[in-house]
């Protein structure tokens, strides 16, 4: 049995003890805060899987590039026909398009 399953079974036993004897007594026995014990019953639906820890990774980020910006950046760093030997060269047309889209040039 891995530690994740052990943690879930530990939480389940903590919840059943808290239901039977009360939160204060369970917090003393399991050496957990009362707020920790009050947190888990809201998630618990009777299955052991509901007591698993959820990811804390954010779903989105406000500063991510949009798909259009990523395409423009890829175009900007793509090699052009005139500079086929220079792989890291920025295409002048792509650079001008990015700057124009961002309002740096009047055109």
Descriptive overview:
This protein is mainly alpha-helical. 50% of the residues lie in helices and 0% in strands.
- Globular, elongated, flat, extended or rod-shaped: what is the shape? rod-shaped
**What portion of the residues fall into strands of 2 or more residues?**
under 5%
Helix content: 40-55%
- Give the topology string: H per helix, E per strand: HHHHH
Q: Whole-number radius of gyration? A: 28 Å
Q: Helix/strand/pairing class, anyone?
A: mainly alpha
Distance between termini?
Answer: 65 Å
Overall pLDDT level: 79
Oligomer: single chain
Which regions have little confidence, pLDDT < 50, spanning 5+ residues? none
Total count of helical runs of at least 4 residues? 5
- Biggest beta sheet summary: none
Count the beta strands: 0
């Amino acid at each position: 049995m891995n530690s994740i399953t052990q943690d879930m079974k530990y939480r389940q036993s903590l919840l059943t003890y808290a239901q039977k004897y009360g939160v204060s007594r369970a917090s003393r026995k399991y050496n957990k805060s009362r707020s920790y014990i009050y947190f888990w019953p809201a998630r618990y639906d009777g299955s052991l899987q509901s007591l698993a820890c959820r990811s804390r990774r954010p779903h989105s980020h406000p500063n991510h590039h949009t798909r259009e910006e990523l395409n423009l950046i890829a175009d900007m760093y793509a090699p052009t026909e005139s500079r086929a030997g220079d792989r890291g060269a920025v295409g002048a047309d792509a650079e001008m398009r990015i700057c124009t889209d961002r309002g740096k040039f009047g055109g």
